[in-house]
Protein: Sec-independent protein translocase protein TatA
Organism: Ureibacillus chungkukjangi
Amino acid sequence: MLQSIGVPGLVIILVIALILFGPSKLPQLGKAVGQTLKEFKNSTKEIVDDVTGEFKEVKEEFTLVDLKKEDSSKK
């Protein structure tokens, strides 16, 4: 979504923000948005890491089951 905005779109958004919030509130607003995005990114990374870990565990379990089946079929 943000990839298609471009420079003119960002300028328009900044002008609207300047009109709505005034020059004194823009740094605070920018900081709040930055912190929110940072927290969102960290949370997303944690979720991806958890899911990846679960997939690795399941893959290892299936590998062990497959190895046990191969051993029992050879006997």
Q: What stands out?
A: The mean pLDDT is 85. Helices lie at 6-21, 26-74.
